[in-house]
Design a protein that fits this description.
about 210 residues, 6-stranded antiparallel β-sheet, alpha+beta, Yope Regulator, Chain: A
């Protein structure tokens, strides 16, 4: 959806209230006006679509034990927090950034609050394992990881509504979090754990991944 610059005459009191609401929502005046008009006219814009995606993610994740949805100041970003089943249960953060006009839907970044070199090394081994699983059963995706941080591009599926896109991203985060914790729970018998996880991923997870 393209954008253009328009000149409009507005009441000063309305502009002041518009600016207040925009500030409270962490967006610009133009973005807030765009949202108000899209709601009033029932026209979906990239911004309202992203809001609907995150709203559906929040609804689903709110009902899942051990996961917490967090809105970010930017309308295009949100995050999910969980805990890693490993010693002191460090926090895992899944940051989701949505794209407005690019071919891809967005990107998810996973990070771990730790300076422990052993844990960072284990996480990088997990990333390699997870990438291998996805490439084997989903096909090529775009990945990167460095110093314990991992990112994976989210593919845009044609025909998915905003709500279904939110559901797809939420389910992906849930699946990734499940695989991660099962992997770490089975570190002492890792070869066997990998086999079990691969079978589960192939049968119960990969067929439903839409991003």
């Amino acid at each position: 959806m393209s954008k253009s610059v328009y000149s409009v005459i507005l009441n000063d009191d309305l502009v002041a209230e518009l600016d207040r609401v925009a500030y409270n929502n962490g967006v610009s005046r133009s973005a807030m006006l765009d949202k108000i008009l899209s709601t009033f006219l029932t026209v979906e814009t990239p911004v309202t679509r992203m809001e609907s995606i995150f709203s559906e993610m929040e609804r689903l994740i709110g009902g899942w034990s051990g996961m917490k949805f967090i809105n970010q100041p930017s309308v295009s970003m949100a995050s999910v927090q969980s805990a890693l089943v490993y010693r002191y249960n460090p926090t895992i953060k899944y940051s989701v950034e949505l794209f407005q006009s690019e071919e891809d839907l967005g990107v998810i970044k996973m990070s771990l609050r730790t300076q422990n070199p052993v844990l960072i090394s284990l996480m990088e081994e997990f990333y390699n394992y997870f990438i291998t699983l996805e490439r084997k059963y989903l096909g090529e995706r775009e990945y990167s990881y460095d110093d314990g941080r991992f990112s994976r591009v989210l593919k845009r599926s044609e025909g998915l509504s905003a709500e279904k896109s939110g559901e797809a991203i939420a389910n992906f985060v849930r699946s990734l979090n499940y695989i991660l914790n099962e992997y770490f729970s089975g570190l002492e018998r890792l070869d066997n754990t990998k086999i079990i996880l691969e079978n589960k991923y192939r049968k119960e997870i990969a067929p439903f991944i839409k991003v």
